[in-house]
């Protein structure tokens, strides 16, 4: 969905909800208040808050399930989470500093070149297109729920009561929380308290690992329903795609070859397209066909780039072909060095491709195209595997890459869509990126994140012998957290500038 449409629709939903919330509170006060109390919902302008205690018993069972061996394994796991959190702290700070002081020249060049607006995040080199904003919201909700479940399970394990769980939506930004008993939490020894505070970061890291494992095994898990990396199937053709039309590619066509280059994956699809410019193929054509269809005119050179011309420049259907010498340097006597042929009819008569000038039948002809142009022949089949007439396109491969969407997942059944596993794979990739990002951000000492509580716990636990007064230790904790918050705020301003403000100027 277009990001502007998404924001307009979301704003409209919030306005309608806020209107009815005000209306019911004024006209149906008691029934509506009872409904809000039972569901845990709170509606304000551009915000929705949901709080529940339904999961308390479930979390209590999860945290206390198992014998002493299981409990020991859980404690060991959360101890690893504490070590990981302190290992992520310098990495997170370095990423913040790199984000703040990076020049952003590459991004400005890309934006000026017509690339769609992208969302810059705190992981250098990872940019997110705004068109996939729905994936970001879904991923954020999943990562936040996993994060808070980690805190809740660790709290139950340390005998800290969990009093509730909730999620808030500030416009399109979701924030989840686990409500714990602060008195019980603050009464724990420092290592037990750190287990609870670092559990969310640890769960995000484990969740990222699980998602990465699913990405690595997607070909196996999808094999009952899809074939993977055998061919590619066309999933989308944009409105401006030059390959649209009756004689062009169609959605659900399976592309098997491009200019004789086998297409088995999305990577080979792109590499075969780009190689059509770098390594322009030759075509084996019979001498009789050339003699019957030659439309050569006087040989000249193009006025702009000096390209040799043997065809009428006003006829877009023809191209000048050069007869390629074989390995021995022999040129067929019965053919001129350059001939002008109809491109489509010529490629339909091709028996095989040639590179060194040797053909089992006929002679090797290579089209004389400009450096930015290539002839691409797409061999394809339909969903049932039946061969279809090849699609011939003359142009630049990037026009195809930008306007034709393909998938390496070919459905085994007609009711399946090739886009479904791609959407699942994209969601998993975003979960990996967002989970690692959320773990890094929460490890940083910043107000509102786990890092602030972790910093306070460490300061008050390890500086007791050096700094006797609680207020001074608290001041040290506030100063450290303020520095981390300042770095985070500067990084967020840089992200907002690169993603939203600068493209508008």
UniProtKB/TrEMBL annotation:
Ranges that cross the membrane: 6-24, 80-101, 133-150, 200-220, 475-500
Top-level taxon of origin: Eukaryota
Subcellular localization: Endomembrane system
Top EC class, one word: hydrolase
GO cellular component assignments: cytoplasm; endomembrane system; membrane
Molecular function, one GO term: metalloendopeptidase activity
Keywords of the record: Hydrolase, Membrane, Transmembrane, Transmembrane helix
Membrane topology per record: Multi-pass membrane protein
Reactions catalysed according to its record: Cleaves several transcription factors that are type-2 transmembrane proteins within membrane-spanning domains. Known substrates include sterol regulatory element-binding protein (SREBP) -1, SREBP-2 and forms of the transcriptional activator ATF6. SREBP-2 is cleaved at the site 477-DRSRILL-|-CVLTFLCLSFNPLTSLLQWGGA-505. The residues Asn-Pro, 11 residues distal to the site of cleavage in the membrane-spanning domain, are important for cleavage by S2P endopeptidase. Replacement of either of these residues does not prevent cleavage, but there is no cleavage if both of these residues are replaced
EC number: 3.4.24.85
The keyword Hydrolase is assigned to this record: yes
GO term, biological process aspect, one: membrane protein intracellular domain proteolysis
Signal peptide coordinates: none
One of the Pfam families matching this protein, by short name: Peptidase_M50
Domain Peptidase M50, residue spans: 136-463
Matching InterPro entries: MBTPS2 (IPR001193), Peptidase_M50 (IPR008915)
Role this protein plays: Zinc metalloprotease that mediates intramembrane proteolysis of proteins such as ATF6, ATF6B, SREBF1/SREBP1 and SREBF2/SREBP2. Catalyzes the second step in the proteolytic activation of the sterol regulatory element-binding proteins (SREBPs) SREBF1/SREBP1 and SREBF2/SREBP2: cleaves SREBPs within the first transmembrane segment, thereby releasing the N-terminal segment with a portion of the transmembrane segment attached. Mature N-terminal SREBP fragments shuttle to the nucleus and activate gene transcription.
PANTHER family (alphabetical): MEMBRANE-BOUND TRANSCRIPTION FACTOR SITE-2 PROTEASE (PTHR13325:SF3), PROTEASE M50 MEMBRANE-BOUND TRANSCRIPTION FACTOR SITE 2 PROTEASE (PTHR13325)
Protein name: Membrane-bound transcription factor site-2 protease
Source species of the chain: Drosophila ananassae
Gene name of the record: Dana\GF13403
């Amino acid at each position: 969905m277009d990001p502007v449409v998404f924001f307009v629709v979301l704003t409209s939903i919030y306005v309608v909800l806020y209107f009815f919330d005000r209306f019911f509170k004024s006209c149906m006060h008691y029934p509506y208040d009872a409904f809000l109390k039972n569901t845990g919902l709170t509606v304000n302008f551009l915000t929705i808050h949901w709080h529940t205690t339904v999961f308390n018993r479930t979390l209590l069972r999860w945290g206390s399930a198992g014998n002493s061996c299981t409990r020991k394994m859980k404690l060991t796991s959360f101890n690893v989470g504490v070590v990981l959190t302190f290992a992520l702290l310098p990495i997170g700070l370095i990423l913040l500093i790199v984000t703040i002081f990076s020049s952003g020249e590459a991004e400005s060049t890309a934006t000026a070149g017509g690339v769609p607006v992208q969302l810059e995040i705190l992981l250098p080199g990872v940019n997110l297109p705004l068109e996939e904003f729905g994936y970001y919201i879904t991923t954020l909700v999943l990562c936040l729920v996993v994060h808070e479940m980690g805190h809740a399970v660790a709290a139950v394990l340390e005998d800290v009561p969990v009093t509730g769980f909730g999620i808030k939506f500030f416009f399109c930004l979701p924030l989840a929380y686990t409500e714990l008993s602060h008195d019980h939490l603050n009464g724990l020894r420092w290592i037990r308290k750190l287990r609870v505070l670092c559990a969310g970061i640890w769960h995000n890291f484990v969740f990222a690992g699980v998602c990465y494992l699913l990405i690595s095994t997607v070909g196996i898990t999808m094999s009952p329903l899809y074939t993977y990396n055998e061919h590619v199937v066309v999933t989308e053709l944009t409105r401006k795609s030059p390959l649209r039309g009756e004689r062009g590619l169609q959605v659900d066509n399976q592309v098997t070859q491009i200019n004789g280059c086998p297409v088995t994956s999305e990577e080979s699809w792109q590499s075969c397209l780009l190689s059509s410019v770098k390594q322009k193929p030759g075509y084996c054509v019979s001498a009789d066909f050339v003699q019957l269809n030659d439309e050569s005119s006087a040989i000249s050179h193009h006025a702009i780039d000096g390209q040799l011309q043997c065809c009428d420049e006003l006829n877009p259907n023809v191209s000048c072909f050069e007869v390629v010498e074989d390995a021995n340097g022999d040129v067929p006597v019965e053919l001129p060095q350059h001939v002008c042929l109809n491109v489509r009819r010529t490629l339909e008569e091709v028996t095989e491709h040639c590179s060194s000038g040797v053909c089992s039948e006929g002679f090797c002809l290579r089209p004389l195209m400009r450096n930015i142009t290539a002839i691409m022949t797409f061999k394809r089949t339909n969903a049932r595997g039946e061969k279809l007439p090849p699609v011939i396109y003359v142009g630049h491969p990037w026009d195809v890459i930008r306007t034709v969407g393909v998938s390496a997942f070919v459905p085994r059944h007609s009711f399946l869509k090739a886009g479904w596993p791609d959407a699942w794979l994209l969601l998993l990739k975003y979960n990996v990126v967002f989970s690692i990002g959320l773990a890094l951000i929460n490890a940083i000492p910043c107000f509102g994140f786990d890092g602030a509580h972790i910093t306070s716990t460490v300061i008050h636990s390890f500086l007791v012998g050096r700094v006797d007064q609680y207020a001074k230790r608290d001041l040290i904790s506030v100063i450290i957290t303020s520095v981390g918050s300042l770095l985070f705020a500067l990084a967020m301003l840089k992200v907002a500038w690169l993603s939203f403000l600068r493209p508008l100027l």
